[in-house]
């Protein structure tokens, strides 16, 4: 005789997938984040003058981490002024537009901050 049909699970899909799916997503996110950070790491390493690589590199990384933390905190702080809360997402599109625009702000600071350092990168 054929086996009895399987009864469908009443668990939500997220529970049925289990924690391993969420862990895989977190791992993939971490890997992609590290890959996108590579150009910054290479630039930071090449800008360090001989003799003080460790100190200057640590300063670069501290600045990067501070900016990352500040971005997360300011993003969370902007939710209320834009009216984004649980169940009310009307202000989400304007908030995302502001976020996208602020991602371009560091481009304006490249020339003043790097000064002649870009010439040194070309000769190395």
TrEMBL record:
Coiled-coil residues: none
Subcellular locations according to the entry: Membrane
Gene Ontology, cellular component aspect: membrane
Region (Disordered): 1-25
Pfam assignment, any one: BT1
Keyword terms: Membrane, Transmembrane, Transmembrane helix, Transport
Topological type in the membrane: Multi-pass membrane protein
PANTHER family: FOLATE-BIOPTERIN TRANSPORTER 1, CHLOROPLASTIC
Protein name: Uncharacterized protein
């Amino acid at each position: 005789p054929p086996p009895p049909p399987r009864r469908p699970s009443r668990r939500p899909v997220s529970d049925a997938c289990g924690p391993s799916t969420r862990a895989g997503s977190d791992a993939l996110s971490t890997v992609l984040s590290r890959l996108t950070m590579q150009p910054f790491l290479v630039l930071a390493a090449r800008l360090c003058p001989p003799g003080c690589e460790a100190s200057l590199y640590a300063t670069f990384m501290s600045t990067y981490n501070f900016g990352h933390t500040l971005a997360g905190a300011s993003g969370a702080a902007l939710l209320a002024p834009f009216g984004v809360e649980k169940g009310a997402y009307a202000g989400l599109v304007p908030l995302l537009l502001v976020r996208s625009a602020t991602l371009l702000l560091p481009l304006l600071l490249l020339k003043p901050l790097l000064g002649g350092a870009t010439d040194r990168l070309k000769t190395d």
